[in-house]
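Re-running the complex after MR caught last week's input typo. The corrected sequence lines follow. Everything else is unchanged.
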Amino acid sequence: MRGLTMPKSMIRVGVNGYGVIGKRVADAVTVQKDMMLIGVSDVVADWRIKMATKRKIPIYCSQPDRLEEMKRGVEVAGSLNDLLSEVDVVVDCAPGKIGAKNKPTYEKAGVKAVFQGGEKHEVTGVSFVAQCNYNESLGKPMTRVVSCNTTALCRVLGGLHKRHGLAKARVVIVRRAVDVWESGHTGIMNTLVPEMGVSHHAPDVKSVLHDLDIVSMAAKGSHNLLHLHFAIVQPRTPLTKEDVVATLKQEPRLVFVKGADGVEGLNSVFELARDLGRPRGDLYEIPVWEDGIMTIGNEIYLLWSTPNESNVVPENIDAIRSITSTETDWRKSVDETDKALGVVKSLY
Amino acid sequence: MRGLTMPKSMIRVGVNGYGVIGKRVADAVTVQKDMMLIGVSDVVADWRIKMATKRKIPIYCSQPDRLEEMKRGVEVAGSLNDLLSEVDVVVDCAPGKIGAKNKPTYEKAGVKAVFQGGEKHEVTGVSFVAQCNYNESLGKPMTRVVSCNTTALCRVLGGLHKRHGLAKARVVIVRRAVDVWESGHTGIMNTLVPEMGVSHHAPDVKSVLHDLDIVSMAAKGSHNLLHLHFAIVQPRTPLTKEDVVATLKQEPRLVFVKGADGVEGLNSVFELARDLGRPRGDLYEIPVWEDGIMTIGNEIYLLWSTPNESNVVPENIDAIRSITSTETDWRKSVDETDKALGVVKSLY
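Corrected-run output:
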């Protein structure tokens, strides 16, 4: 396809791994004016990958030893290396830690790469949240979109931090047990399982917001719909609730919801998202409870839900533009992505 | 029974409401050397109250209009007023807010009363956690044992506060959705439902630890086993982790568990409790994760589980001694209660 005529600005994108994130990134690439989805690569040919066939997306095989089996299920366009030879950027959406193993393959193919938060920061040396540090990844051979939790923390806390300066942020996260599609050896359980010590989220946030004094604790919950975040932050100078709301309203990809409007919990957020009519009922925004915001003394209390399957999808699109330097203004990239995906400033 | 000869020190106790707390308090009264359970009162005669019959506990009827129906299910010894005429103290374990309605009945009968945390502090004007403020209830006509969550907060934070002084405490609570026995209109749900604003726990803690600067946030979880508490506290002078552990080891009704020992979550605590061989697998102690304790800068991070069905049971026993002034030394009462109930300093 490299030989075909296409607008010079078209970024040719491949997605390696067609799971929870991969399939969403593939769809999001498809609706961008400056990007073209060349194909997706995976190692199985079950119902999930067959959905790509329905979307007429060329399917490649990431592992030579899986090729014969995959061919029995779907039409295979070629190997991962074949896909890499056709693209400018690969978005690695393989399961956590597999991305690091894929890195040499991408480097050898001379293809830029976007990794996910399941990989360590060290894999790329640079991590990415569009509205926080877009420029750090500009022109780099690769970058890493941080996890859903870290992305949410960076959007909310980063917004307050860059405008007002936060002396510190203390966070408690209750994660969903598993993703909705999962039913394997893990599952919803009747328990809460806390992490001992500082959860990995705080150091991960620092890979984007380098100077933020943040400590996080976390537990795995019983449910499978969205994460819940509690934050207690101290701005360097006292802020009113109105200041906090006004600041966060300026930030992209944050929306306010209210308990008083009946948005009582993660279940309401999930249902609200399905009513928006987007593919898969996805939420790209972080819904912050406006009536959950409190300012007490020199502290701000915040409460939000993190759409774990989908909030990093727009980030992946912006990361592609950043590493290819096809857009150097973070705001323009974010606006373009959000317009294409239908990101809103108010859910209802 | 007032006419019978019995040791002068025997406190005659009745329990009104034979539910989650009531049945446990009744059993706990039975094993105290200085108390005698005269009977329990309720408004139904289903399997729950029939369990009292199996234990040969006289059953009274709390509501005249339920008498005939109750009689069809169990042998009824008399009315609530009949029970009150036989006792020195009634422990009100009726559902939340019903206790307040029962208060005039107890006053009219001239019987001292212990209420539960489902009632407002104003109902009694004094609230109770044995190791924190036993003396405040001494000789009072009534007191209120605070809720399971508040009791846990008071035990852990109170221990640190009284020995070191806490500049502030910030808490996040993830509550169990429902009690294990419940299956009615509420139930386990696939969500987390946060409270907007300060949860009721912080003001409730202040009804016992009057000068503690505490703010709490809370959410209802999906599970039905125990609550999970996260706390971030600032002592007035910095403490090491060893200081914190040493301090909490001195406190009664706290035990340490470790994630490293395989106590991974609320489920492990629940199972551990069942292995102890106590009635109903009850835990009276607050299991604090020792390897969950962190000291970072001037802050201490703590993590514990709250046995919602049972941790207030010893408190009810001590409250009886406090309001009857039969024991004026809180430590002696606590030791006596704990010996009778088999409270331990280490679960495994």
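None of the earlier attempt is carried over here. The CA atoms of residues 56 and 120 of chain B lie 33 Å apart. Chain B has 13 helices and 16 strands.
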